[in-house]
Each structure stands twice: as C-alpha cells, then as structure tokens.
Amino acid sequence: MKTAFFADIHANREALEACLRHAEKLQIDRYAFLGDLIGYGADPSWAIDTVMDYHSRGAIVLLGNHDEAVLSRPEMSMHDDARYVVSWTRSQLSTAQMNFLKELPLVFDKYEMFMTHANVFKPQGWEYVTNVIDAKKSFSATFDRFIFCGHLHEPVLYHQGATGKVVQFIPVAGVDIPMGITRRWLAVIGSVGQPRDINPAACYAIYDSSRNTLTYFRVPYDIATASKKIADAGLPVWLGDRLERGV
Amino acid sequence: MTDIRFSPGSSIDGFRLESRIHAGGMATIWRVTKERVSIPMAMKIPRLKDGDDSSFVVCFEVEQMILPRLSGPHVPRFVAAGDFSEQPYLVMEHIPGKSLESLISESQFNPHEVASVGLRIAKALHDIHRQHVIHLDVTPDNVMFRASGEAVLVDYGLSRHEQLPDLMAEEFSLPMGTAPYIAPEQVLGVRSDPRSDIFSLGVILYQMITGELPFDDPKSMAGLKRRLYLAPVPPRAMNKKCPKWLQEIILTCLEVDPRNRYGSGAQLALALENPSQVVLTSRSDLENPDSLMTKLKRWISFSRSGPIANRSVSRHLDSVLIIMAAVDVSPGMETLSDAIRLAVKRIYQGERNARITCVAIRKTPLVGIDLGLDDEGNNMYVQYLSALKHWAQLMELPSDRISFHVLESPDPAAALVHYARANHVEHIVIGARGSSKLRRFLGSVSSHVVAEAPCSVTVVRLHETWDASGQGSGYSSHG
Fold it and tell me: Of A133, B53, B297, B425, whose CB is crowded by the most CB atoms within 10 A?
C-alpha cells in the first residue's frame, strides 16, 4: 500500500497540482495532508476545495498552525507578514471551507503510524523538530514505529535504533530508503508550497508498505505564476520572491 | 551451542547448505547451492543470540541494505536476502581463493608486485565510490581476487552509502573499523569521506613493502589518535629496496588531511600504473623517523586545525575527475592542438583537483613490421613523447596533475577508448579535423571515439571561415 504525504501546501496551487500529477502516475492508495493547507500563498480557496475532495475519498487531513490561525486570532508569535496573510486568507474562504478547517484533527495515530503537523510531544505547541533532541522527544512520546510530520519545510529523516540514539539523515530525492524494521523512523516531509532548503522544487514523499521504503520527491513547478499571483493579490511581494530561492 | 537448523544438508528458503566456510565472531558463512543457479554462492548468517552486541545486527542490516545496490566485478554479486523478522541471511556470489591477508602472511613483495596489487584495489575502490558507497573497512582480510585478476572488496558491514541513512551512526561504540587501517577522520567519527578508503589502502601498501604496520595495532582511543599527528616511519627507512616513487605514493595516501591524499581511486591507480611519472616531493626523500621536534610541531598543528570539511561522495568525485586530452602531435596540426589545449584549460579551470592525462597516438601499420624508427633512425616513441610534453607546457599545470602517454596502435580510436576505460577517464577532449568526403564515409577517429567512449567527449573543431559564396575556404583558430 502506497501512502503519499503532502505537507505545508500554503495555498500554492501550482506546486500542489504538480505534486498531485506526479503522484497520480505512481498509483497511490492513500493520501495524507499534514497541515498548513493555507497561509502565504494566493490560492487558499482552491487549496481547501482540492483537499476537501481528497478527504471525501478517504484522505487523511490534519490541522496546521496556519490553518488554526485562520480559524481564530493569529498567534502573537507570527510575524507581521504572516498575520496579514492570515486575515487576507480568511477573507477568501467560505463558511463551508472554514467549517472544514474547524473539524480537522491534530493527529492521526493508527497502524503503527503517527502523523501530525509539527511534533509528537506537544502537537498544539507547534514546536519544530529541528534536531535529534527534538526527534528523540517525539520518539519518546509514542510507541508507533513511524512518525510523519511537516512544519519545518525541509525534508529530514531521523532514525532510532536499539541503543536509543537518534541519528539525522538528509534524504536524497528519488532514492528508495529501506525503513529497517529493527528501528523507528521520524520523517519530516518537506514543503509542497514553500520549500526552505534552498531547493525551490516542491517536495512530497511516498511510503510503500509492501516494499517498506520511503521515497522523497522534488517536483519542479511553475514558480513564476505562483509568485505573480501572490503579488497580484496584494500580498507581500517577498513571499513570492522566496519561492524562487527556496528559502 | 550449534543451531541444529544450520548443518550441512539443511535448507533455508531453497538454498541448500553445503559446507561451512567460516565461523566468525559476528556471522557464519556457508557454501550454498540452489536449483537452477549455477554461480557459486555463499550465505552469511549473523549470530544473533541474546545479549549479543546490537552492533552485530546493525552490521548485518547495513550489508543487507548496501550489497544489493552494488554491481560490477569488484563486488560479490548479491543473490538474495532473508526476511529480518524470520531468518536473516544474505546470499551472495562466492569468491574462491584466499584473501590478501593470507597472501601477505605467506610472502614477500617486491615494489612492482605491491604496485600491481595496489592498482587493482584502487580501481575497485573507485568503482564502489562511483556507486555512492564508501567501504570504511578496507583491510587485507576484506580484499580478494578473481581468477581474472580484478580485486573484489568484501564485507560491507561497516560501509556507508551516501544516499541512504547511516545505520552505524546509531551505535555508541565509535569509531568503527579495524584499528591498524582506519583513517584519522574515521577515528574522529567521520564516515562520509571516500578518501578514508584511500588511506586504508595506503596502510596495506605500507604493510606489503615493509612487513610492518605504519601505526601498529592500537587498543586504546589514545593509541588510535596518534595517527592524527604522528607520521609513520618512512617505508624507505624500513626497507631500503622501497623505491622513492612507491614511498611517495604510500605517504600521499597516508596524509592526515584527506585533501592532501589522492582525490580518488582512479588517481591513485594512475600513479601506481605510471611510476616513472610520479612527481617526487620531499616525502620521497624522508629516510628517518620524525625527530622529537617534528613530532611536537605536528601535534601543535593538529590541535590547531579546524574540522575537515565533509563533502558528498559523488560531488567530491566530480571534482577529482580525470580528463584525457587526445592530441595529434604530427606536423601541420598545431592550430588544432592549440585549440584542444584551450578547451582542456577551460574544463580544468572549473575542476580544481582534476588530473589531465595527455595521450598521443602513433599509428602503427596493420600489417608489416613496425620498426618504431623514423627515416633518420630516431626513435619515434620518444619523439612523440617530447612533442606531447612540449604541447602541454603552455597549460602551466602543476606537474603532479598531468601525465603523458604515447599509445602505439593500428586503430587509434579503439586505443583511445580502451585507455579511457582502463583509467576511469571521465572526460575526453579530442580534435576533429575538417571534414572530407573520405572521412565522412569512413568515419573519423573522433566520431568513433564519440560513439564508443565510456564518458563525455568534447570534440574540438576549428571555426571555418566562409567566403562570399557561402563555401568554407579556410580555418581560423578561434575554436
């Protein structure tokens, strides 16, 4: 069974379309959207409609901090640009779309898999998993063998063996990584809509349970259009610029 | 206690256990056979009793992960792997014969034998590095030879595949490896530098020519760390018969800073294959162990030095590539050979650590006797070689980055391609003379090379100058 993971779409239509087209060719059995469907990008309404469609066909969809911010008052910890985008985004959404966001769970925990937007130890705290210490905290907070999360906007893989030591690995796109059963894995899925690892291509990942492999993919997309839409919508221009640089 | 399942005649997943080849601390190896499979096979079964070090398991997992991703003559071919949750095992091609370890303990080696063995291992290392794998446990025990001569590297339990997670890093008992052979950076826990394997090969070469290990067999961390700042006793101090070129090569491999070693197995192989072209530096002059003062200076310099930069295996190999310049040194071809030199320079400038190998072909007759002498009785090989060196002079390259070869063959294209393949050349620069009807019909040397080359080829042409009628009328050298 193949599960495709999409995280941090951030209302980037061009990026998500490219990733979904790429995934469709690989016969995906299950889709999982790990939060931050909106925020930063110019197509929040389209993004939610698309994800709602997948959800109606059985996809897993989780809440991210930007999604939560649109539902309520934005966190004071968000910087000004993010807060402006949050209120603009709210203005673009219908009641039905807001209701969809309202119903989203924070975590998915079944079949040895723990999925969440940011971390396992305190999902609603939205702390990043940036290093082995954070990863270890996440590993300690569940018995599941696999943890999938996003929020970081960079693809990183952590593994923990019998010794308890956690090791970090930066995955190479397109390489099938065997997920050895004698250890546990925490996969930070990179961002679809706003990659921040200096590689502007959209990022998503597929876990194949029959071969027990995880593969990250980088999918080039029409950045120029996504960027222009951001500027045309009156959103801060640098949100479009950063897409081109992958920051 | 022997496990009853594992005895001659019993069967695991269709593989019949024939005889036990080896019972080691970490695994047992059996000769196995399977119906309809003709290649000789060996099955490795890890020892997994309670209380065993978890690193045994990880070693096995690493090999099970990496071996299927390696191919070629320098690796035992992967056949099958058992499900870890049921019965872990690994079936691979069985390489008959003895390891280098037995050969070393049984015989003495003269310098050319050392070079020949070293050359074969260096080629094997380059091959696995190109497949993104660093061996990290290059020892005489882990080197075997096929009947056809190629070196085979075995036992990938400690290896690192740069595109896959490093399972070994989960273990606390670093550093990993076999103490006499591991590189200084491996002592510090670095497992991502292919030049670590070059260092280990240097230890083997040292052992072969002197009969001793350059850094002994330390049993403590402090002992292991000595190689970070203490130079080994120069081989010539231990064996007067060790020629300067071999000492130069060995001590280059044993440099503490990986940047000062050979950049790749291919570069090391090139040196071992061409002893007369090894540039001798002060390394080759050393005849005595370091004085106390020198040792102190080295230790101070080591404690001041910063971290050694890590590079990915493949990105590193890209920058140490071997460029082959195929030059026609016959009279009248100077304009074209100037253009070739310019093209090579441009490529070289982008690749700091690249090495240029300049090749000229002397075409010999297909039939008839080739005396190798010109009309005046002068040796043509020597003439070609001098012309080649003269050609290269204007490139102003450091002499340790360039080598010269004259190939004599009735089929220049085939000779060039063969040479490129044998020496892991990664970029060929060759000139193409202006087209003529005959050349178009028969195919020029350059077009044959392009068709058969094992790597990228840059074909250098001179610009045609056009006259008013639109016909090519001559050549300028702006190419």
Answer: B425
ipTM, 2 dp: 0.88
Q: Residue B202: inside a domain, yes or no?
A: yes
Which DSSP state fits A203? E
Beta carbons within 10 angstroms of residue A72's beta carbon: 9
Give pLDDT, residue B64: 93
Interface test with B, best of A132, A157, A158, A175 (most B CBs within 10 A): A175
Residue whose entry in the numeric block shows the structure tokens 């593994």: A159
Q: How far apart are CA B93 and CA B115, in angstroms?
A: 27
Whether residue B71 is found in the same domain as residue B133: no
Single residue among B77, B93, B109 that ends a domain in this structure: B93
For residues B309 and B384, membership in a common domain is answered with: no
Give yes or no: residues B107 and B208 share one domain: yes
Q: Is B6 part of a structural domain of the chain? A: no
- Specify the length of chain A in residues: 247
Structural domain including B367 reads 321-478
Nearest-Cα distance to chain B for A116, in Å, is 23
Q: Are B235 and B144 in contact (CB under 8 A)?
A: no
Q: Which fold would CATH assign to domain A2-245?
A: Purple Acid Phosphatase; chain A, domain 2 (3.60.21)
Identity of the residue in B85, B162, B164 whose CB atom sits nearest the CB atom of A181 = B85
- Are residues B471 and B325 part of one domain? yes
Q: Is B2 part of any domain? A: no
B268 shares a domain with B364: no
Nearest to B323 by CA among B396, B272, B267: B267
Q: Write the residue in A162, A167, A178 that is nearest to B169 by C-beta.
A: A167
DSSP B181-227: T--HHHHTT----THHHHHHHHHHHHHHHHSS-TT----SHHHHHGG
Domain residue ranges in chain A: 2-245
Q: For the whole model, what pTM was predicted?
A: 0.83
Task: With beta carbons under 8 A apart, name residues in chain B contacting A177.
Answer: 164-165
Helix (H) or strand (E) holding B366: none
Run of H or E including B160: strand B160-161
Q: How far apart are CA B427 and CA B460, in angstroms?
A: 13
> In B, which residues are within 8 Å of A165 by CB distance?
169-172
Residues ≥6 apart with Cβ < 8 Å to B203: B180, B181, B213, B214, B215, B253, B254
Residue B2 has pLDDT above 80, yes or no: no
**Tens digits of residue pLDDT in B97-154:** 889 999 998 888 999 999 999 999 999 999 999 999 999 999 999 999 999 999 999 9
Q: Convert A195-221 to b/e letters by CB count within 10 Å (16 or more is b).
A: bbbebbbbbbbbbbbeeeebbbbbbeb
Query: How many structural domains does chain B have?
Result: 3
Q: Please tell me which residue, B444 or B319, carries the higher pLDDT value.
A: B444
Both tokens of B55, joined, read: 């690193």
Residues in Cβ contact with B159 at an 8 Å cutoff, skipping those fewer than 6 apart: B62, B63, B66, B133, B134, B135, B136, B137
Same domain, yes or no, for B362 and B426?
yes
- The CATH number covering residue B456 comes to 3.40.50.620
Cβ within 8 Å, pair B170-A161: yes
